[in-house]
Request: fold
Amino acid sequence: MAKYMDVHHSMKGITEEQLREAHNADLAIEKDEQVHFEMAWADPESGRVYCLSDAPSAEAVQRIHERAGHKADEIHPVPLMVQ
Amino acid sequence: MAKYMDVHHSMKGITEEQLREAHNADLAIEKDEQVHFEMAWADPESGRVYCLSDAPSAEAVQRIHERAGHKADEIHPVPLMVQ
Reply:
């Protein structure tokens, strides 16, 4: 398992409720791929959404996002983290 | 105060120690601009580094990053967050 940051580029105008619904759609099926979506942040103005996940691979992250109806535009492993 | 996600594109090969040093350089001066860098994630392979901060403006985030020696390539407000 590893951490991934994926980015959606085209979610302009997304509301808090839509972000919650999209995240819940991921959470509902994430176990099928041993993925866990931990947090997501959205900028309604630019349409960027960033999702932090714990997953076996980038492909597993994308399969969940695709099935939930929101394919990611970028997925990067982020093995390093500081706090 | 608002949340920001900034992205660095060109930190290929960054190590855990270098990420820690870069983050500490931000933390050392962030109070000058009422910014707080909460977390940072790095992908040494693509060179992407994502930083989550709490700040009065994107310009304040950039001023700290510039003074610390690592200007951000993108800075997006992220007013929406789910967990």
In short: Chain A has a mean pLDDT of 97. The beta strands of chain A are 2-8, 36-43, 48-55, 74-77, 80-82.
